[in-house]
Amino acid sequence: MSCLPPFQNALLLTQALTHRSYVNEQSELTENNERLEFLGDAILAFLVGELLYQKYPAMNEAELTRLRSNLVKEEQLAQLGLEIGLGELMRLGKGAIKDRGRSNPTLLADSFEAIIGAYYLDSGLNAVKNYLHQLFIPVASHLVSQQSESPSFIDAKNLFQQWALANFASNPEYAIIDVTGPPHAREFTAEVRVNHLLYGTGKGKRKQDATKAAAEDALKRCQLQG
């Protein structure tokens, strides 16, 4: 089982584990992990991209992009969050705990990103890079093997973009059209259009998951996916 990275500043680690719902119930607290989550998201995108660029020199841009997308998607980050113990360590409000927040994929993924942002501030980019390599290299190897065996691994948004360009010389346009649920369990609804015509809709715990679901819906309507 993987572990949390070694922090020098315990306060940064505590902030990374603190969800908004916990702060809302503690009058003396003001800092949650959302800014660290923002930072961690950017660092993950860069370092995972760099890792794949170095590890897979034969892959083209589209293949690298698809692989990175699958590595940093909510389900994968949530799984890594569980593996490093975030399910028990997250500081959640009573309402979030009651709503099974400790196993909520969105909360786990967000907390994982916050941990990465906090560890960067604590120990620097090279330390984060070494830590992420330990976590992501085995996962990347598994996904590459899966990719070679399953055409369904192809990213839906990329496939629908290819179809839209081939048929209309236009890129798909995605939009979030609805947001429901409490702050700790949001559900987004997205739509995708080509030349202003609606082709698909989808829902997800994150905006990127909703847009991916919309692309999958569009592919089914166009009979491009099983």
Helix content, binned percent: 55-70%
Averaged pLDDT: 90
Distance between the termini: 36 Å
What composes the largest sheet? 3 strands, antiparallel
SSE layout and pairings?
Layout: H1 10-16, H2 20-24, H3 34-55, H4 61-71, H5 74-83, H6 86-89, H7 94-98, H8 105-123, H9 125-149, H10 156-168, E1 173-180, E2 187-194, E3 197-204, H11 207-221
Report on the architecture of this protein.
With 226 residues, the chain is mainly α. It folds into 2 domains: 140 residues, Ribonuclease iii, N-terminal Endonuclease Domain, Chain A, CATH 1.10.1520.10; 66 residues, Double Stranded RNA Binding Domain (2-Layer Sandwich). It has 11 helices and 3 strands; from the N terminus they run H-H-H-H-H-H-H-H-H-H-E-E-E-H. A hairpin with a 2-residue loop joins strand 2 and strand 3. Helix 1 packs antiparallel against helix 8, helix 3 packs across helix 4 and helix 8 runs antiparallel to helix 9.
Features:
single chain; 226 residues; mainly alpha; Ribonuclease iii, N-terminal Endonuclease Domain, Chain A; Double Stranded RNA Binding Domain; three-stranded antiparallel sheet; 11 helices; 11% strand
Q: How would you summarize this macromolecular structure in one to three sentences?
A:
By secondary structure, this protein is mainly alpha-helical.
